């Protein structure tokens, strides 16, 4: 499989707003790998002309004028069609804290990578496996050594709030990711001592939003570079 070189591949950067950034990624392999840049959070990459794209091909990635939308983690992915030999289970969770109100349908999601193929399942607070059927609908979407895990909770109730774990396990080990589901009040309502709900107005919303924007306008932005874990050369333990 391809091997991404630590040098001269770019490392983490902290840059002021408006500056120019040039990122470089270099990898070896046989056949020679193709290099692609993506955001780790799955969002589009915003180009200097305002166009949004899912990925950028090639070893060089240039940002002519950094703004707040460029802040985040970026993946340098090298692919040459040769899969890794073995991969211990790895879990990534995009949203680790999820709010929900009672009665709504909620879907939790995790991404797993492992080879040999892993066993994947969901557990609750006391490591009890979430059963399939009824109000819980676990779904696994396989793609080679990658698995997209989804857990849909139909009609959320008070007993559904708490922590959930997505678990991945194979002969090389196991790992998990945690998602906490918390109670989310419906916007525009508040609870009273009599368990009734009345309309209310959040008078501080506008000032908080303005302060948030000002902080961002004065801040520097960090661009993090990650080597995609699936593409490192791995060896059996």
Automatic annotation (TrEMBL):
Compartments in which it is found: Cell membrane
Main subcellular location of this protein, as a coarse class: membrane
Keywords: Cell membrane, Disulfide bond, Glycoprotein, Immunoglobulin domain, Membrane, Repeat, Signal
InterPro entries noted in UniProt: Ig-like_dom (IPR007110), Ig-like_dom_sf (IPR036179), Ig-like_fold (IPR013783), Ig_sub (IPR003599), Ig_sub2 (IPR003598), Neural/epithelial_adhesion (IPR051170)
Gene Ontology CC annotation, any one: plasma membrane
SMART domains: IG, IGc2
A Pfam family matched in the record: Ig_3
Gene3D superfamilies: Immunoglobulins
Domain Ig-like positions: 2-92, 102-182
Superkingdom of the source species: Eukaryota
Protein name: Ig-like domain-containing protein
Native organism: Heterotrigona itama
The organism's taxonomic lineage, starting at the top: Eukaryota, Metazoa, Ecdysozoa, Arthropoda, Hexapoda
């Amino acid at each position: 499989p391809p091997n991404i070189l630590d040098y001269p591949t770019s490392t983490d950067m902290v840059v002021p707003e408006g500056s120019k950034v040039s990122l470089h990624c270099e990898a070896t392999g046989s056949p020679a790998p193709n290099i692609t840049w993506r955001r780790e959070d799955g969002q589009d990459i915003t180009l200097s002309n305002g166009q949004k794209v899912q990925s950028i091909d090639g070893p060089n990635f240039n940002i002519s004028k950094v703004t707040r939308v460029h802040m985040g983690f970026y993946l340098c992915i090298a692919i040459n069609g040769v899969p890794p030999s073995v991969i211990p289970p790895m879990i990534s969770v995009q949203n680790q804290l999820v709010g929900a109100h009672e009665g709504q349908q909620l879907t939790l999601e995790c991404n797993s990578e492992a080879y040999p193929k892993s066993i994947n399942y969901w557990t609750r607070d006391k490591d009890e496996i979430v059963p399939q059927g009824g109000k819980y609908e676990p779904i696994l979407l396989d793609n080679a050594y990658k698995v997209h895990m989804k857990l849909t909770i139909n009609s959320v109730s008070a007993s559904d709030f708490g922590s959930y774990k997505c678990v991945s396990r194979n002969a090389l080990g196991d790992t998990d990711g945690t998602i906490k589901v918390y109670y989310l009040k419906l916007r525009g309502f508040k609870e009273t001592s009599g368990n009734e709900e009345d309309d209310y107005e959040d008078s501080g919303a506008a000032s908080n939003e303005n302060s948030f924007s000002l902080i961002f306008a004065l801040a520097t932005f960090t661009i993090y570079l990650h080597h995609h874990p699936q593409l490192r050369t791995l060896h059996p333990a």
